[in-house]
From TrEMBL:
Known partners and oligomeric status: Homodimer.
Protein name in UniProt: LCT protein
Database matches in InterPro entries: GH, GH_1_N_CS, Glyco_hydro_1
Cited PROSITE patterns: GLYCOSYL_HYDROL_F1_2
Pfam families tied to this protein: Glyco_hydro_1
Molecular function (Gene Ontology), one example: hydrolase activity, hydrolyzing O-glycosyl compounds
Signal sequence coordinates: 1-21
UniProt record similarity statement: Belongs to the glycosyl hydrolase 1 family.
Highest taxon, organism lineage: Eukaryota
Keywords noted in UniProt: Glycoprotein, Glycosidase, Hydrolase, Signal
Lineage, highest ranks first: Eukaryota, Metazoa, Chordata, Cephalochordata, Leptocardii
Length: 559
């Protein structure tokens, strides 16, 4: 059955290629686009790795910590694969000193981690009182980093909202959270800002709002895609701006740090680049992923992207609503949100191919609001995560897009990485990750050297295997493997540790360095070798169309 399908795919692709005409290059190896480029990063480039509190700390109720929405969610049967929880996770609550030694061994000068709001304010509010043990914990982590020559970059919100704020207000759908977040942020600036100079208010609001308040696949598990998703985005944008202004007014002159937000975005190509509707659809995809938050904050015009405002209004009216389901900012809000950044924090992993597809659905829904259908090229290597494909050139195109559309900001890549499946014994020869990193890091270098993009930092996700949200411990993103069956949670370096270490030590890929030779030797193998490239070059629109069909059938069967 399988082989029949494959033969059918190939026959159809050969036949339909000439008929449909246009060749697409999204899967093919294109030497002009994909060749290795030796060279070094600018002096002082920041090499980093990232983690997040709920994913690594454990100690979920230690020393006065309050319950977060992820504690509640993971303790609810059926929400996380196998019933995995972050109760212990990597036990970094106890093992942070060891973690810092892992970083030191890598030669890292930067580390991005997040604070658990409920470790500091157990019920999320200043009025509810501060938990000194939680403050002490973060003071210890920060001091340990600095003592080892590592600069901390702190995320205030990496998804673990105080459960009390969820219960009291319904979470991010409520504007009441703006002040509570500002209070928490202000406390953090005040308490840690003498030593912490790089702050990120929110990690990936897109994920918070689409998964937490849309699909319900993440905490707090609300399923209300067409309304709550947008309300959530609205509150988060205002909360970010409010915290940025607090820093700007009260702390910047004394502490001299920087505050921004981290947005997630995959790169998107049009299915048929000769079809204007597809080209517009591909851009619309980027507007819904990134522009939703980037346009209000990073453009001088401010407000939500016009493409998003227009289409959601039109859909809302057609569905019988009196006004757009996308909330409106006042003129004063637009003005005070615009420009609330010091750099552009970017999490990037994967790419997609998008086709215009008008939807007339009557149910309000974030996905059908976008009028598009999305797929991938069949040749793209896939990670253990269902959404993650290796498309190194996608990061270069996205970086250039950010430069062109958002005022040429300093870009800090705050996450980029690859997952393999959990295995026994664990996968320590992580060739897939190695190939991913060498490809993506090299494309970042091209973005800097050839496109003049102002990239200042590159951050690998993650320092070590950790709690991968609704996937529990079944997907592994770490440079280090962690044994979650052992109470001591031992960490073991994977092969990519020595690779990343060499890249950092050489500040890239200078001619003559061992790491450069290694990359050259592996470059072909990482792309499936010359045989793989030839096959990829034969791919055409017909095959891509079939992949849409197969994806559609697959989705249908999985419903
Ligand atoms: C990051 O988010 C998180 O910040 C981090 O905590 C996490 O562990 C890490 O990545 C690995 O997952 O449904 O096809 O539209 C992940 C970024 C962006 C992944 C959006 C899923 C949606 C894919 N995510 N993406 S799709």
């Amino acid at each position: 059955m399988m082989s029949v399908t494959i033969v059918a795919l190939f026959v159809t692709s050969f036949l339909s290629g000439p008929v449909c005409g246009a060749e697409y290059d999204y899967g093919a190896y294109d030497p002009a686009r994909d060749a290795f480029r030796p060279g070094q990063f600018p002096d002082g480039f920041f090499w980093s790795t990232a983690t997040a509190s709920y994913q690594i700390e454990g100690g979920w109720n230690a020393s006065g910590k309050g319950e977060s929405i992820w504690d509640r969610f993971s303790h609810t049967p059926g929400k996380v694969q196998r019933g995995d929880t972050g109760d212990v996770a990597c036990d970094s609550y106890n093992k942070y000193q060891e973690d810092v030694q892992l970083m030191k061994n890598l030669g890292l000068r930067f580390y991005r981690f997040s604070l658990s709001w409920t470790r500091i304010f157990p019920d999320g509010t200043v009025a509810g009182g501060v938990n000194q043990d939680g403050v002490d914990y973060y003071n210890n982590v920060i001091n340990e980093l600095i003592a080892n020559g590592i600069t901390p970059m702190v995320t205030l919100y990496h998804w673990d909202l105080p459960q009390a704020l969820q219960d009291r207000y319904g979470g991010w759908v409520s504007g009441e959270l703006v002040q509570h977040f500002d209070d928490y942020a202000t406390f953090a600036f005040q308490t840690f800002g003498d030593r912490v100079k790089y702050w990120i208010t929110f990690n990936e609001p897109w994920v918070v709002c689409t998964a937490g308040y849309g699909s319900g696949g993440h905490a707090p598990g609300i399923q209300d895609s067409g309304n709550s998703t947008y309300l959530c985005g609205h509150t988060i944008i205002k909360s970010h701006a409010s915290a940025w202004h607090s820093y700007d007014q009260t702390f910047r002159s004394v502490q001299g740090g920087q505050v921004s937000i981290t947005l997630s975005c995959g790169w998107t190509e049009p299915f048929d680049p000769d079809l204007p509707a597809d080209v517009i659809a591909a851009d619309r995809d980027l507007q819904f992923q990134m522009g939703w938050f980037a346009h209000p904050i990073y453009t001088s015009q401010g407000d939500y992207p016009p493409a998003m405002k227009d289409i959601i209004l039109q859909k809302s009216l057609a569905q019988g609503f009196q006004e757009s389901r996308l909330p409106q900012f006042t003129a004063a809000e637009i003005a005070s949100i615009s420009g609330t950044y010091d750099f552009f924090g970017l999490n990037h992993y994967s790419s997609g191919i998008v086709k215009d597809k008008v939807s007339t659905g009557q149910d309000p829904n974030f996905w059908t609001d976008q009028d598009l259908e999305s797929t991938v090229a069949p040749e793209w290597p896939q990670a253990a995560s269902s959404w993650l494909y290796s498309v190194p050139w996608g990061i270069r195109r996205l970086l250039r897009y950010i430069k062109q559309n958002y005022n040429d900001p300093e870009i800090y890549i705050t996450e980029n990485g690859w997952s393999e499946e959990e295995a026994d014994p664990p996968i320590l020869e992580d060739t897939g990750r190695l190939c991913f990193y060498m490809g993506y890091i090299n494309e970042v270098l091209k973005a800097i050297d050839l496109d003049g993009v102002n990239v200042r930092a590159y951050t690998a996700w993650s320092l070590m295997d950790n709690f991968e949200w609704a996937e529990g411990y079944t997907e592994r993103f770490g440079l280090h493997s962690v044994d979650f069956t052992d109470p001591n949670r031992p960490r073991t370096p994977k092969q990519s540790v020595s690779f990343y270490k060499d890249v950092i030590a050489n500040n890239g890929f200078p001619e003559g360095a061992d790491v450069t030779t290694m990359v050259r030797n592996m470059w072909e193998e990482c792309r499936g070798g010359p045989a793989g490239w030839a096959a990829a070059t034969r791919a055409n629109v017909g095959l891509l169309a079939l992949s849409f069909l197969v994806t559609a059938m697959y989705n249908f069967l999985n419903m």
